[in-house]
Amino acid sequence: FSEPTAMSKKMIQNLAETLSKQVKHFNKTETQCLIRLYNALLGDQTERKVGHGLDRGKFRNILHNTFGLTDDMIMDRVFRAFDKDNDSYISVKEWLEGLAVFLRGTLDEKIKYCFDVYDLNGDGYISREEMFHMLKNSLIRQPTEEDPDEGIKDLVEITLKKMDYDHDSRLSCDDFEKAVRDENLLLEAFGTCLPDAKSIQAFEQQAFQVTRFAGAMTHKYEQTLF
Amino acid sequence: MGLALTRAAQWTTASSGMGKLEITPLNESLLKEILHFVEQISARHPQEAKHVFREPLQWETSLQASDFTTEYDISGSCVQSREADGDGHPLLQLTPPDVSVRSFSQLTRLLQLVPDRKLREVRACLEANRDPVVQILGPSFASVEGEDSSTLRLLDKLKEDSQSGEAELTIKLLIILQQLDTLLLSNSVKQLAQEVRLSPAAVKRDVELLKSLCAAGEKKVLRSVCYTSDYEFSNGCRSPPWRQVHGEIAYLIIEPCDSEPLFITCSTAGVFLNAGVRHEAEGNAFDRRSNVYKDLVDLLKSKSPHFAEGINKKDFVIQEEPPTTLKIPHVEAVGVEAPGQTLGSYEHQEKNALKKARQQLAPNKTGGEKKFEPSLKWKCLGLPSPHEEAEERKMRRSGGSERATKSRSRFPKSESKAKPSAPGSPLPGPSFTDDVQTERRGDSHTDLPSEYWQIQKLVKYLKGGNQTATVIALCSMRDFNLAQETCQLALRDVGGLEVLVNLLDTDEMKCKIGSLKILKEISHNSQIRQAIADLGGLQTMVAILDSPDKELRCLAAETIANVARFRRARRTVRQHDGIKRLVNLLACVPHCVSTSSKQEKDMEVARCGALALWSCSKSTRNKDAIRKAGAIPLLARLLKVPQTNMLIPVVGTLQECASQRSYRIAIQSEGMIEDLVKYLSCDNQDLQKHCASAIFKCAEDKQTRDLVRHHEGLQPLVALLGEARNKELLTATTGAIWKCSISMENVAKFEEYRALELLVGLLTDQPEEVLVNVVGALAECAQRPNNRVTIRKSGGIAPLVGLLTGTNQTLLINVTRAVGACAADPESMTIIERLDGVRLLWSLLKNPNPDVQANAAWAICPCIENAEDAGEMVRSFVGSLELIVHLLKSTNKEVLASVCAAIGKIAKDEENLAVITDHGVVPMLASLTNTVDDKLRRYLAEAIARCCMWSSNRKAFGEAGAVAPVVRFLRSNDPAVHRATAQALFQLSREPNNCITMHESGVVKLLIPMIGSSDEVLQEEAAGCVANIRHLALANDKARYG
């Protein structure tokens, strides 16, 4: 590690070579850029943690500042969704895979991702309680109301009525998928967990601008995005 | 008893005056109670019963003097009691038919006299004395709502002069009466509490349940259950609207296993057997034939023992399911009736009645009248009278937002009237009243359709939710049937539109999309459109057209397409630069034909843009704006795509704009005719219609007509004549054929495709728009002689002549043209004459429209020419010649020319010439000679030539100064004018004085070249004229020089 830059360059190139084959939606150059960005983010972290990857706090900062997510709980869940091996750190591969969905995911991929985010306990179902938990801050509470949670409860019922196709009072992945296919707006039914078009564009511009081809590539992908 | 009478008793007219007590179970029990009280009072409170009333109770009685016993003084028909008060007035006095009574003891005795008519007397007494307490104790004790201080005052009085037994007695009596009042009220509450109320939903549930019992195999308890009507109104009722006002919900025919089929009426008051309502109910079939049961199960239990047995056995099975489904939810204890319930459903029924009455059972006259007969229940509710209701309906229709406030304000009003106001009223068990009240409040909510409340709730979440909640609420809202007016108006009335429009201003993409999706649906309603425009929604949506998100652009454009159906909205779109943006949407389409998802989306954007432009293109200014924004080449390019859903708005826009010349030229020059012709053969009638309509508008131009033929568009047009059922399509098609047939080459093609036979077939049973076009086409085609024969042979003459009696101006213009053209065929002429067609044409000369006049006059010409005895025929029309001469005063050139032509034909008959001369035709024709219009000159000259058959007329023309101007006609360039003028001059030159004038005008110089013309007639006439002049000169020379 005496000459990190030189080493890294070589390493990054090799890594990008391999990873770009494994991860969808990014070409080699883009992969390289994202790896470089990842390294840059890691660089700020304390030595001790570098070995494991990006930690929760760091990642949440990115979500908040770059992608405009606000809900703490959702951000935690997004972290969990990125952190596939559950080691509380995001490895470079997880980073790339996560961003692939985050930035350029197909509807199918996004459905899967959102469901994972919303399935708080990871049991494969979004239960009434989980919905309530996620929606509890979604309404302005009227202090005059007898039961301030009534609106939330009602909202949960509305959602169930709309999305629970098999009528088992909870949402399975199938339910969720069907509902979203029927009405795309329901993709982020329980809270924003994907960046909006503007922040995606901004992020990609920033991340890929270093490369010569970036402009062309971004343009190409923009087309698929819209 | 005052309060009980004012509140609990059910009076025929809620207002004051001479009300009658209804004969209802409730009133009956009230009366019995009062009767019992009066009978008992003498025994129980002998002191108080003797108390003399302040004022006598007076009423019209059925009692006769003969009814009275010897205790009374009877003199004739009058009766007096022996008992008298302090002043010596008798306590009972009968002067038939009136009786007045001044104490309870007398009252008691009176009632004992007629044991069989007791109830009737009490009723009459109460009807005459709405508040008997006033009579009994004095006006200060009148029953008043709220706090009643009379008792307290009395107590004070009692303290003041304790000697007076009078006051003490009064207070005792008052207390007795108030006890009675309380008793009555509490009894009536019990009564009311027993009443049941069914709702459509409850009936439906019951029927479902019973149906399931029918299906239960061998153990079935019923054979069949069915409704008499399959149609269900949106309020859930199945009975016709005029029965719904009686509270009837549905009719059932239930076949029990052990008896005849039962005809059952389910009404809000309960269920009962009717006199046999089947699918077509008539007359008294609706009458009640049994007791009223509280629900279907009860009725069946009593009518069918088998059912009762079966249902008892199965009780367990039913109770395993939610046990409540059977009865509980719909049987609501109703206090003084739920005011809103009736109101709500009434409103509903009204709406439906308007909409559906025609489709439903044939409107039953008596039923319709009955509708406005107030039902017993509503009376005490302060329900607006039918008149008020009607007025209100009017208001609601006229102004949207008024309705909301009005209907809202109505609820509290009716509620407060119907409800006894708790404070101060001496009701027992206040807690019970409270219950009734809260429940009733709940009731009045349920009377509006449940959607209303659900939508209101969702709107609340929209207002008070973050993005997530908003999106959920928006998605849920879309599950309502937004095409239904109830939902649309509910959404507006609860303030949902404002929120939806406001959401468009946010940055949240999803909210905007969700909101637009809803706005798109509901903007099909014209009131909603207005409201969206009023809220400034158009401006926002126009701004959204610039959004980078394609879905959003699509939705905004589609919603604009819906909203911009009225002028103000279209103007708003234009003024906010919307046209330009919409045209930009069209630009998305790539040149190459490819089906990538991106291009599909682009196409969708363009399609929505075209839809919006189509809506906007209905305003003239917008047409200009669309053209200026460069839409024409874009539309031309979109016209090449294969998708029908894209083509319809594109062609729709084009045909709408083709009313402007610049568009017609562009359509022609951009090669769009080829595409339009191509789509005439597609399989979508809408598209075909718009294409034909565009061709109709463009084919005014000759080049376009040629292009249509060149692209082989005529045959598909003829083929479309077969689609006679789609009137709009037929109108467009026939219009296109008409305009195309202006070119004779096209007519030849139409002959080839045998279009004329088809067109003649369309002369009957078609709407006027179609007729105008068909007749127009026939008129053009009939310019070719062989087509006249075709029209005659396919039987077209008679319907054409028949159409001469119409009123549509355009149609008349075309018909006169067509008839005129056909009249050139002698055989057709015979038919026209036989059908009195000439007279009809002649009467059209009186039509105020100059075009009709002119065409009628043109049509008359060939008629006179070809009719057998034309002179006689013309004379037979009374006042006809005067009429036509009179038309020479017209200012319209075409009218003048046509009338001159007709006069030329008429004057062939000498007798008629005499008549028109008498009507002063000569000076009138002479005054027209200054014209420079060649057409008029030609026919004018012809007419003059004809009129000169009479020598006196020749002279008269000369004297009127017509000769010199006619000579000037020769300077025209039109050979037809030359020929006619030569004829006229030849005739005029037979009068020597005219020759001199002509010569002076230099006629010879002008005529000489015409003698050398190739036109023989011209040659001859010109030569004749010159010869006449020469003869005169020779004669003159001879005379002078001998």
From TrEMBL, chain A:
The keyword Mitochondrion does not apply. Keywords: Calcium, Metal-binding, Repeat. The keyword ATP-binding does not apply. It comes from the Eukaryota. Pfam families: EF-hand_5 (PF13202), EF-hand_7 (PF13499). Residues 70-105, 106-141 form the EF-hand domain. InterPro entries: EF-hand-dom_pair, EF_Hand_1_Ca_BS, EF_hand_dom, Recoverin. GO terms for molecular function: calcium ion binding. This is EF-hand domain-containing protein. It comes from Electrophorus electricus. The lineage of its organism: Eukaryota, Metazoa, Chordata, Craniata, Vertebrata. The gene is EFCAB1.
Automatic annotation (TrEMBL), chain B:
Signal peptide: none annotated. Residues 367-376, 386-405, 437-447 have a biased composition (Basic and acidic residues). Gene3D superfamilies: Leucine-rich Repeat Variant. Residues 349-447 are annotated as: Disordered. Transmembrane segments: none annotated. SUPFAM superfamilies: ARM repeat (SSF48371), Hypothetical protein c14orf129, hspc210 (SSF103107). ARM repeats lie at residues 495-537, 536-578, 754-796, 879-921. This is Armadillo repeat containing 4. The lineage of its organism: Eukaryota, Metazoa, Chordata, Craniata, Vertebrata. The gene is odad2.
